[in-house]
Amino acid sequence: MLGKTAGGLFWMFRYLERSENTARLIEAGLRIALTRSGSTEEEWASVLQTVAVYDGFIAKYGTDITRDQAIDWMLRDPQNPSSVMTVIEAARNNAKTVRTALTREVWEAVNECWMSLKQALTRKVADQDLPFILQLIRQRSAYVRGALHGTMLRNDIYNFARIGTFCERADNTARILDVKYYVLLPSAMSVGTNLDNVQWQTILQSVSAEGGFQMAYGQDPRPREIAQFLILDRRMPRSLAFCTEKIRSNLGYLMSDYGTRLPCHDIADAMALRSMQRDIDSVLDSGLHEFIQDFIQDNANLSMQVQTDYRFNQ
Amino acid sequence: MKDAFYFDEMTGHQGDTLREPYQNFDQWFQSENPARLRKKQREAEELFRLTGITFNVYGRAEAAERLIPFDIVPRIISGREWSRLAKGIEQRVRAINAFLYDIYHRQEIVKAGRLPAEMIAKNEAFLPQMVGVSPPGGVYTHIVGIDLVRTGPDEFYVLEDNARTPSGVSYMLENRETMLRMFPELFTQNRVQSVSNYPKMLRRSLAACAPNMAGDKPTVAVLTPGIYNSAYYEHSFLADKMGVELVEGHDLRVVDGRVAMRTTQGYKPIDVLYRRVDDDFLDPLNFNPESQLGVPGIMDVYKAGGITIANAPGTGIADDKAIYSYMPDIVEFYTGEKAILKNVPTWRCSDPESLKYVLDNLHDLVVKEVHGSGGYGMLIGPTATKKDIAAFRKKLMAKPGNYIAQPTLSLSTVPIFTKSGLAPRHVDLRPFVLVSPNKIDITPGGLTRVALKKGSLVVNSSQGGGTKDTWVLEE
């Protein structure tokens, strides 16, 4: 396989995952705005920080954040390299580049994703259309993933697509935790105000996991369990441990397929081992914030190392 | 009803007969509900859009991706008509390859006085770097597209030879796929020769031209300028169907005297490169130094026999519009036979007498740039305004050597499906030819391009033309 193709697959699936995550965070932001009185400026600032587009936003609009501007920036703005439309366009361009590696089903799914979102996001989205469009974004990205699962050979092509998906997803979950870690700290546990409850719900919503959490841990969200769920729970498909394990296993297939062990395998093994050996109390004791920051850095290093080891670029 | 001036391939010169190849189709069409057909036509377009069979229009950002309109009425050619055509095409393609070998070696044709020396020496399409180079297997034009037009039951003219990087074959294949999907019954009622193994034949044909140093299973790759190129869809389509890598210049590098592609496991040599990049951009070290699309040093590897480039660099000299006018002589010189396919009479404006004739008759002629393509930069006298003609006259007089002129041919028509039923529109035909050391394969049919505007003679997709499925019936 061409190095460029591996890179194209990796980025195509990172971008698709990103579009979905952004849509989910906007949904959670809208929910919190509905359940809270007064200014929601702070909440949108935190959403913008989570998707790492805050600096670009204030450069364009200044520090007065309005809901409409924040949403437009995240959904449509071509100046925002991570806006949904920008990343969908990039995902499709990558799909074009790697067209020969994709099945017809996967290509058509990503092409349809682009066609329908391009149409839906031509103009500023009206309030009443937002729920539908956010759902459309999640749905279209899911179609591509479904086509990937249902039609692609389990070979190196599939592995690179999956590694991209989980690098992005791990980064996203870690960022949610990074921005909201303070509401999960033990000191906050004793408070348990209404406001805290809303914050905890928001975290679960932004990873589409209210139902899953309830099934696994019962009715009442507790910060310690939420942290456990999002960081270490291997049943939870967006947890850091789950993503890390997926990256490790897909890199493992590549290793046996190609018969070569590379530096990225060492990093992935070390990360997976770490999440296996830790328990949530030790994470909280030694500092949740530091843990998350380290994780984001390690994940970024791993992503870089994969790109180097498999010659995505020159 | 019908302008008797034109030959209609379904209903003849007078428009009052039903020509034999169209009989089954006509019966089917009469029994169809037009509303259903209209729905099918829309479905076809949806299918093309979903598949991504679009082309990029240069210089128009808002309409960057467009569909080439597809018409559901097939263009039908009888087996007998086709075999005669195929003979003519094969003869012409053989002559083109012999001509190219000769031009880059001893230039016998010039020595024999059949082609003026300045036609070569002063020609931009002549590549001095190719002098004395013999491509692997002796093949220069691995893939050729011969543009034909028809003016009567047995009258075909070659409009243009495309010996560089002819495109359109993906449309030929997708049009057939679409028809098979939408109207399977038509293919049980008619015995249509298949085109679907073109990618397989292309791969086999390319592999057969691999350099001597290649192993049993030569590595083939397609070189594209990238996703923004107007024909990118076709590049990825062909690579996909052939099961070979689709590479861009930045994937390639010369390693140990071979052209190699960067894979996830290191550099891997390529034996045959089907390049869809123009000569000028192929190698920044040997041609245009600004090129980002090519591979530095590929020409040196090529000359040393380390890779096959298809088509060979320098083949443009054979499809140059000024050389075109010599084609009947060229065919005769190399094959010893009269050319089976006719040339359109051509005035070379470099010649003062011809120029005078052309200037006097601009309103009757089609004037083309010698190196132009895609229907740009040409004048169609009969449909041009006085202003257009005056402006063109100036350009022509400033640089006469840049132009040739031809009479306006009465291009045949084939019906298209419109809101008010069948309506005749002008068409041309581009059959695709594969050349390997011992064989010339011609896919039955080719790409039919159709001018969708009533009366228009311009079939180019960049100028609002569409395409049709082209059938060659079994004999």
From TrEMBL, chain A:
Q: Which residues form the signal peptide?
A: none
Quote the Pfam families the UniProt record gives.
Alpha-E (PF04168)
Top-level division of the source organism's lineage: Bacteria
InterPro entries hit by this protein:
ATP-dep_Glu-Cys_Ligase-2, DUF403
What are the DUF403 domain coordinates in residue numbering?
1-310
Its recorded name reads A alpha-helical domain with a conserved ER moti
The organism is: Marivivens niveibacter
Lineage of the native species? Bacteria, Pseudomonadati, Pseudomonadota, Alphaproteobacteria, Rhodobacterales
UniProtKB/TrEMBL annotation, chain B:
What is the organism of origin for this protein? Marivivens niveibacter
Q: What is this protein called?
A: Circularly permuted ATP-grasp type 2 domain-containing protein
Domain named Circularly permuted ATP-grasp type: which ranges? 74-451
